[in-house]
Amino acid sequence: MGEKEKDERSNIDLTPDTRGNLQREIDHLNHELRAFVAVAMRHGLRDFCETRHPKLVAELDQTDAHSQRRAKQKYDRVLAKIIDVPGLCGSTGDTAERTYYRNAQDNVAYIEHALKNKRFILGGIWVAPQYRGNGCAHNILRVLVEAADDADLGIELYHEPFGEEGLRTEELEAFYNRHGFAWHDSAPGGLVRLPRSPLDLYTSS
């Protein structure tokens, strides 16, 4: 191919529609590349990605750091709200991984929680035997899901039955289902409640 022919091809006067189509295709390919690099980094190929696409890796790191900070802010907002359950006084434990609830006389309940993968991780709700069956767990969970909805933060649940007096596994699942939790591929072995999932008016635990 001669120089003249190459010059003629490089100086083609593209129409606005053609330019728009080309730009959309470029944007699509860049988006696909960004997604590929993000997945590759999560699967142990960071060194490869840094060698081939250093600027993109830096951008993804910056975006992830910002996202992590936002998730921590949301998590802290939820923790601040879940201490306020009607009829109970809530307080955060020394390790910040439990929130305890008591009334005027007794320690009534606690929940286990953490922040992981930009979600609120709920390890379960424990209620003292003498206070089970009166809606205590429901009231705590309702405050939690409403706080998480307000903060736009998803909840992952990993909960095993507490002792022989507690609900059985299938009963626990049914209880959490009523509060918008469901099985989800993003949490193998657990239940997930995405922000603003349907929540019924169930009023007893």
Short recap of the structure:
The protein is an alpha+beta fold and 205 residues long. Helix content is 47%, strand content 18%. The protein has helices at residues 3-10, 16-42, 46-52, 54-82, 136-151, 169-177; strands at residues 89-92, 98-102, 107-116, 119-127, 155-157, 182-183, 191-193.
Q: What would you note in describing this structure?
A:
With 205 residues, the protein is of the alpha+beta class. 47% of the residues lie in helices and 18% in strands. It is built from 6 helices and 7 strands. A 7-stranded mixed sheet has the order 1-2-3-4-5-7-6. The longest helix has 29 residues, at 54-82.
State the separation between the terminal residues, measured CA to CA. 79 Å
Strand content: 15-25%
| Tally of helical runs | 6
Structural class: alpha+beta
Helix content: 40-55%
- The chain-level mean pLDDT equals 84
Strand count, sense and closure of the main sheet?
7 strands, mixed
What shape does the CA trace take? elongated
Strand count: 7
- Spell the H/E element sequence: HHHHEEEEHEHEE
Radius of gyration: 25 Å
Which strand order do you get reading across the main beta sheet? 1-2-3-4-5-7-6
Low-confidence region ranges: 1-8, 201-205
Q: What are its keywords?
A:
single chain, 205 residues, alpha+beta, 7-stranded mixed β-sheet, 6 helices, 7 strands, 47% helix, elongated, disordered C terminus
Topology of this structure?
Layout: H1 3-10, H2 16-42, H3 46-52, H4 54-82, E1 89-92, E2 98-102, E3 107-116, E4 119-127, H5 136-151, E5 155-157, H6 169-177, E6 182-183, E7 191-193
Parallel strand pairs: 4-5
Antiparallel strand pairs: 1-2, 2-3, 3-4, 5-7, 6-7
Helix pairs in contact: 3-4, 4-5
